Amino acid sequence: MMSVLVWNLVVTLLLNLGVFLTNGLTSHNASTRPAVVNIGAIFTFDSTIGRVAKVAIEEAVKDVNANSTVLRGSELRIEMRSSNCSGFLGMVGALQFMESDTVAIVGPQSSVVAHIISHVANELQVPLLSFAATDPTLSNLQFPYFIRSTQSDLHQMTAVSEIIDYYTWREVIAIYIDDDYGRNGVLALDDALAARRCRISYKAGIPPGSESELGYGRSEIMDILVKIALMESRVIVLHVYPDIGFLIFSVARYLGMMEDGYVWIATDWLSSALDSNFPNLSDKMDDMQGVLALRQHTPGSKSFTEKFKKLSGGSFGLNSYGLYAYDSVWIIAHALDAFFDQGGVISFSNDSRLSNAGLADLHLDAMSIFNGGKLLLDNILNSDFIGLTGHIKFDSDRSLVNPAYDILNIIGTGFRTVGYWSNSSGLSTLTPENLDSKKVNGSHNQELHSVIWPGEIVTKPRGWVFPNNGKLLKIAVPIRVSYKEFVSQLPGSNYSKGFCIDVFVSAVNLLPYAVPYQFVPFGNGKENPSYTELVRLIAAGVFDGAVGDIAIVTNRTRIVDFTQPYAASGLVVVAPFKKMNTGAWAFLRPFSPTLWAVTAFFFLVVGTVVWILEHRINDEFRGTPKRQIITILWFSLSTLFFAHRENTASTLGRIVLLIWLFVVLIINSSYTASLTSILTVQQLSSPIKGIDTLKKTNDRIGYQVGSFAERYLVDEIGISESRLVPLGTPDAYADALLKGSDKGGVAAIVDERPYVELFLSNQCKFRVVGREFTKSGWGFAFPRDSPLAVDLSTAILTLSENGDLQRIHDKWLIRSGCSTDNSELESDRLHLKSFWGLFLICGIACFIALFIYFCQVFRRFRNIARAAPDSGGAGSRRLQTLLSLIDEKKDPRDKKRQKVERSISNESRDCEIGQDSERR
């Protein structure tokens, strides 16, 4: 027992001594740099990217060690291992690096391997810089020690989506390798397309691995492409590995899918393969004519390209991933230099969790944690220098700044650049550097150079065709029981005819391609079908389109696409009318009763005001009370004919009379015009004036079965559904209108204008009342994002411009029924609202004139009241004085006499003052 305690004491002392020595060594290393710093690299050596990356990484290490300003006294040593695109081998290789005290790992190139190795890097806190893992789901949140030293496919797929949107294609087919790289890349493409109202219509996944491993070769690729050839879209995005990609192009050419009409867009795998193996791919160039490809934009690579040819001996070329591999080594070198400047020490500690988990038998002692991993990671993320690929700097998402791509067009024996894409400016024919130097922002016009497409055509492919599977488009045609001039079906056949059918057939004939279709009847033939239900079936995929008199209204446009309207439409009100005879009292009809009353009232008001203003100074407005009343009436009424004989002497009276005569002039002119219309044009009268009248009454309203008018009247106008009566035929229209609302019929009918015009062509007892209260049109309906809707809209515009649309209209809808006798529905009478402004001006003038007049009278009354002595009964005398002043005759010569008297009195006063002074 005693010996055990002694041994424990000895062990404790040795451990404390080891800690002391370790701390002393650590403090010594803080002030010195190690002679050798070990980093690792793991990728597939014999791959397209790996061959280039191996040479680039080795050269980068040489350049770093030859540069005395970096690592200053420390040598960078790299150990490379091949993962052979295997996640398991990659993980084993990463664990082996830990035996040599590796502080950072360059690679891997595969996104699949990166997902696995990132877990090891997280546990051991060793930064992992991948120069080729472009999977956008490799998140820094899940893998904090994973740094992507290349561009993410998130940016590449954004570039692809902008190219698709630039050429106005709406659907694409994606062929991808079914692993983390391909699957997650296509998901990013799907999101980028959705943001631009485009979509992937079909995804074709190919299992990863070689033909010898999976038995997945030419025949399986042919099955996929044959299926794609039967689909509608002709825009194909290829996101695979080079070996599979070249095989797909070969099979596509064999199947005729590299001809006119197809669009192929390859991601940067193709440009990398061409850059690396161009001399060896001459036999494959014929399979890729017209293909668009993307390549990561690397502005600083020209000088290194020539050097790389010597390094590789001309056996393979340099691609963009080799440049990013070269810069990855320099990123680590700069970060290590900053790491040592900050006192960082390369030290490792055992992971206690391995021993605690009972894994001692696996001999994982070499798996130690890099103590300075967090500090080195921060320095890597703070990198800021110019490398071969451009500006090396990481943003807040740990992605390289200024992502950009070259857009290449494969043509002949090589390729040419047709434009560029950058995250800040979008598509452009200028390089991102030139755009930045010119300070062009993202609002500039998107443009690309002309492209030579598959089939050696320069015209932009349409991007879609009708599926080549023998299936005809099912175009629904409503079976109408009324107004068959618009669309009808021959009994016992699928043949349809009518105005709408002729417009559709003429528009289809203008398309530059054949449209295989068949008309499918819709409806029971007993009543007009519901067009809202028809539109819903199109959205559900039951029909491929619909042709007929389908109104374009809001709730329908939410679920389907319509063509350009080929006929104008809108809801109107139809009501019965009666002819109005002129009669003995026709002269009273131009004015409403209210206007007559107000006009008569103002005649009396103006006459009274003028009498008040002229009474004191004008003898023509004086006399006995009877004579003065007659004068007021005569004067006011005679102004109607401008025949008044009395002259006005006061200024205020003349102003009031001038304004009143102007009002009378306007009233006379309006009355004459209205009366002339009444006596010369046959007037038609209807108690209903429009939709506003119907809304205020409780009368029953008719509508056409299947029309959207029912829901519009209920939901938008607010008319009770119990007041609405469904009617199916023009005869039912006429019978219901003749009966009237009180006898079980309707007071009016609300329907679309084309139907109403056809109905009124042979029904002469009814007329349209009021104005059209909705604006819409008829169009052909197709599923959402259907390219046929766009092309047919162009064809309809062509029909309208060349006059064919009008000729089709005249063929089916022109009817000579009721004679046009220039009768028109009764115009609204002239109401007070049309003249209230004139009456207001006249009233204000009268008020101001009276106000000024009475102010003058009261001022004189106040002067007289002050001069009069106070005595009893002063109130009654003042009232008598006021009334006498109002009725007093005023001589215009009084002013002159007052001036003379005032002058004489002033002279007399002066004489008296002079005499007084002499006397004194």
From TrEMBL:
Keywords: Disulfide bond, Glycoprotein, Ion channel, Ion transport, Ligand-gated ion channel, Membrane, Receptor, Signal, Transmembrane, Transmembrane helix, Transport. Gene3D superfamilies: 1.10.287.70, 3.40.50.2300, Periplasmic binding protein-like II. InterPro entries: ANF_lig-bd_rcpt, GABAb_receptor_plant_PBP1, Glu/Gly-bd, GPCR_3, Ionotropic_Glu_rcpt, Iontro_rcpt_C, Iontropic_Glu_rcpt_pln, Peripla_BP_I. Residues 1-24 form the signal peptide. Disulfide bonds join 764-818. GO terms for cellular component: membrane. It holds the Pfam family ANF_receptor. It is found in: Membrane. The chain crosses the membrane at residues 595-613, 655-679, 835-854. GO terms for biological process: cellular response to oxygen-containing compound; response to wounding. Residues 474-815 form the Ionotropic glutamate receptor C-terminal domain. It comes from the Eukaryota. GO terms for molecular function: G protein-coupled receptor activity; ligand-gated monoatomic ion channel activity. Residues 885-920 are annotated as: Disordered. SUPFAM superfamilies: Periplasmic binding protein-like I, Periplasmic binding protein-like II. It is a multi-pass membrane protein. Residues 886-920 have a biased composition (Basic and acidic residues). Glutamate-gated receptor that probably acts as non-selective cation channel. Belongs to the glutamate-gated ion channel (TC 1.A.10.1) family. This is Glutamate receptor. It comes from Lactuca virosa.
